[in-house]
Amino acid sequence: MSHIAGSVTQISANPRNHWARALAAIDLRELGQGYKANRILDTIRYNDNIESDLFLFFETLINGVATNDDVRKINIPSDYNRGIGGPLHPPFRSIKDGASFPKPYPSGLALPDMVGNCNDFRYIEEYANWRSSAGAALPIDIIHVDEKGEGIPSLLASIAAQSYAGRIRLHILGEKPSGWKKPRGLDVTFHAIAFPSEEANALLWRISGDTRLLLFTSGVIDLDPMTFLRIAHMGQISDQMVQTLIPPLADSGATPFCTSAHKNIVNRRYPFRDVLGLNFAVTSTLFRNVGGLFEPRFGGAYHAGREFCFRLYNRGCYFQPIATRNIRDFSAKKGQGAADAKLYVQLCPNHWDRKTDGAHEVPKVSIYIPAYKAGKYIRRAIDSVLEQDMQDLEVCIADDGSPDDTLGVLERHYGDEPRVRWTTGANGGIGFASNRAIAMARGIYIGQLDSDDRLKPGAVRRLADFLDENTDVACCYGSCERIDADENFLKNEYSWPVFSREKMMITSIAHHFRMFRKLAWERTEKFREDIVNAVDYDIFLKLSEVGKFHHIDEILYQRRWHGENTSNVNEGFQTTNTYRVQREALTRSGLAHFWDIHIADPKEPRRVTYQRAEGRPLVMFWPYYRANPYQRLLYAPHANDAEFCAGTIDAALQMITISERPAEHIFHLHWLNFLFKAGMSEQEAAASANEFIAKLEKFKTLGGKVVWTIHNVISHDAEHREVEVNLSKKLTELADALHLHSEYSIAEVEALFPIPRHKVLIARHGHYVGAYADLVSQDAARSYLGLAPADDVILFNGQVRKYKGIGTLVEAFRKVLVQRPNALLLIAGAAPESPIENLAAPLSAFERTRIRIVDRYIDDAELQVFLKAADFAVYPYRNVLTSGSLMLALTFGVPTVITEAGMIREVMGGGDAGIVYDGSAAELEKALAAMLVAKDDGGLNAMAEEARRLAKACSWERVLQNIL
Asked: N or C: which end of the chain has fewer CB within 10 A?
């Protein structure tokens, strides 16, 4: 360990020594810290002393060493955007028809939607669903603070009820109660020390070195039985999650996995303010990364825990709420004391708690200055900050080994100024110095000031106030003027009026003065340390990928032009490094496989645009159904073969019209019902269909190909049946390929319109393994839904619509219920029309108790609760061709009763995972009764295993192989 610490320290001592960095990366990898190792290695990617072959050798060596890492970690958005593999295609980009972009940006280069802005941790959750083991058994240590000991009994009972196989240790900070009896099978240690305190910090540091997860609890708490599994589920794959324990959900109909019920908490401006004292979980790595120290000056756990979580927030962490069964209400802050409240305001700068300006222990704004040979002008730069009309700020200076009197100026003029802090070290370049300076910063907002420039009066307050009021903005910036060495005005600098990500991709438009959130910076890969210029362009490209930008078109900054500016001295490297950072931006966005920079005129090397790589077809698909992962699963096998973008036929026409390679354009059509708006007349529907066909024909005339996936013989609830049949006939004639999920479906479709067999592509509807969370046990699921262990639970899940035959299911269930009073029908999904209205006879009081309707959209994370609670599922569809619901149920190991169809026969015919019936009410009743008998006989367990086997056998195939 000391050898490894020494090699990492060598980087600070010799920041320009690429061998020291390579050695540190290798040492970290051998320790099992692959994430940090790759981050360090990336800092020498463009080092002039390292040939590309040698860098590749190091990269292979580091990523080939066996480590203690269970899975690759995902901590920041670029970890995800670069590509994580897995069952899902990366989130699709959308090409908008008629969209205009600044020239010479290409209209076909659609940038991905931002992930990870504010407290949006869905990208980490998606990765966890795929990579985190359902039974992740990471060692977990619980630190419980309870001065009176009144919360110990409920905590012990909560621990005993956990469904968790990992090692659990409980540390209680307080005196051992009289008559204490150690519970069997649980490692419990009492520590008679105060919290918070220096002694407690030392103890926590020792504990964190020998565990993977830390759960802090205080007061009276009753944990949900799935708490430890949920903590491990996310903790296994990310060191940037804070999982906060919250009171039970007020909505009695929502389960703890209902993300929409947590929306108000997740989307809060300052999520650390919702932490109920010392009740949260973090990985030990995160705990140690942030220093592992609770502020010992606090008198109690409430403010100590919240202040610690503020530091986690400012470090870029995400906060995921986990509902408890009960938790003491700390919101009133009873007994916490005015002194603690006052100290909290001093240490946690945010405009909700800190209402007034003034000098505070932890400032709201940190202005950072990287300094090298800055003795001539740095005093003017610092004074321009201290003279602002805002006191709640600090200046953080990283001297980069200046050979002049830079340090002397700082010591003589600011030695007694607490708002000015600095550090010095060996010369490592502007990127290295910038990273060091920001690492010193304590504020929530970071302002950038070069050592030879000045801020205009009011600049800091102007930008800080804007960030206060605009939570989703990661960076705001003003405009600037140029001055000479003697501070005479020369001219206003270039200023692009409105921020555009597309414009930013071709040239830097984030002008001085810039201010960004510290948490946004922590979610980037930081400043590059291996390039001499384009450093600012690189970091602001990175910041623009994790949050919105906003330009305030006011002169807030004076840029001094004296002939020795970095951009001027290193002009020879500017073009090369600009290309590098632009290519890096493509890579971070997952676009480098399909796009590269392009210089249309060699005489204008800085006029950069982009062009699509040859041999990478563009597949535009429509409509884009975001609510279901189907399309992301469908296209995942082709993720490296073609660029997949959502877009209408109008957008596809726009792209093919300007393309030099029209044969590489494909339009993939899915559902037809999106062509017909509700309330359309027959004539309007026909006109819409004809217009669509005309556009497809034009697309083909221009050289493109058309593929149609036939999901239904005719759209469910079709209002214009004849129009749609005629449209389908034309599509089969026009399309280059017709995709169906089963060969058996061909005959079913041909009953309505002809299918040219030579155009048919068969690729199965695959499973949903890894697409949804799958953690919950049946016992826990039933407990969440208020279902008894003895209930015979029959599930229908999905939107309740007429074609799905819910009325028939209800009637069949009523007959079965006569013989099986423990049977319970659970209908989960939004129901525009009540499934129990218009029945042959009204429901009896008893029947109403045995039919549960959850009339709302079921969140992705919550699907597991309903599926795991069921003994079997029923899908009594009418006129179904393909069933994603069937594949979902089989994926979760739920035996299924479903109406007969070609695709269903093919999937279910491979084993005994349920019953396929002919669609009649009588046969449905028999199927329900047979499944209940199978439960009595123990046969459902075997069916469940067979369901999982059948699902896994249905992998997603390369449907567009021949077309591409």
From this structure: N
Nearest Cα to Cα of residue 213 among 158, 139, 280: 139
The secondary element (H helix, E strand) that includes residue 753 is none
Q: How far is the C-alpha of 243 from the C-alpha of 214, rounded, in Å?
A: 10
Of 47-51, 624-628, 721-725, which range is least confident?
47-51
Beta-strand pair 608-612/595-599: antiparallel
Distance CA 960, CA 680 (A): 34
Compute the Cα dihedral for 351, 353, 355, 361 and give only its sign. negative
Can you read off the two tokens belonging to residue 398?
């990283």
Q: The pTM is what?
A: 0.94
- Quickly list H helices, 106-222: 122-131, 152-160, 198-208
Cis peptide bond prior to 321, omega within 30° of 0? no
Instruction: Tell me which DSSP letter residue 374 carries.
Output: -
Residues 18 and 57 sit within 8 Å (Cβ to Cβ): no
Tell me if 289 sits within 8 A of 317, measured CB to CB.
Answer: no
| Cβ atoms within 10 Å of 838's Cβ, excluding its own | 8
Structure tokens at 518: 């510290």
CB distance 384 to 447 below 8 Å: no
220 in helix, strand or coil? coil
- 845 vs 500: CA distance, rounded Å: 61
Roughly how many angstroms between the first and final C-alpha of the chain, as a whole number?
A: 52
DSSP class of 599: E
Can you read off the two tokens belonging to residue 542? 């990175």
**What pLDDT digit, counting tens, does each position of 869-881 carry?**
999 999 999 888 9
- Are 803 and 717 in contact by the 8 Å Cβ rule? The answer is yes
User: pLDDT of 468-486, one tens digit each?
Assistant: 999 999 999 999 999 999 8
Q: What is the mean pLDDT of residues 457-471?
A: 96
> Which of 840, 918, 905, 925 lies closest to 878, judged by CA?
918
Q: Summarize pLDDT for 678-722 with one digit per residue, the tens.
A: 889 999 999 999 999 999 999 999 999 999 999 999 888 788 999
DSSP state for residue 836 in the 8-state scheme = T
Q: What is the mean pLDDT of residues 587-592?
A: 94
Q: Which two tokens stand for residue 564?
A: 């020795």
Gap between the Cα atoms of 784 and 880, Å rounded: 32
The CA distance from 518 to 877, in Å, is 52
Q: Give the residue from 304, 317, 375, 313 showing the smallest Cα distance to 349.
A: 313
Q: Regarding predicted confidence, which is higher, 458 or 65? A: 458
DSSP-derived 3-state class of residue 706: strand
**CA–CA distance, 339 with 428 (Å, rounded to integer):** 43
**Closest of 212, 260, 188 to residue 70, by C-alpha:** 212
**The total number of residues written for the chain in this structure:** 964
922 Rama sector, left if φ>0, alpha if ψ -120 to 50, beta otherwise:
alpha
Mean pLDDT across the chain: 91
- Measured CA to CA, the distance from residue 510 to residue 534 in angstroms comes to 12
- Which pLDDT score is estimated for 67? 46
Give the pairing of strands 489-492 and 140-145: unpaired
Query: How far is residue 824 from each of residues 266, 818, 941, measured CA to CA in Å?
Result: 34, 12, 19
Q: What is the distance between the alpha carbons of residues 275 and 366, in angstroms, rounded to a whole number?
A: 25
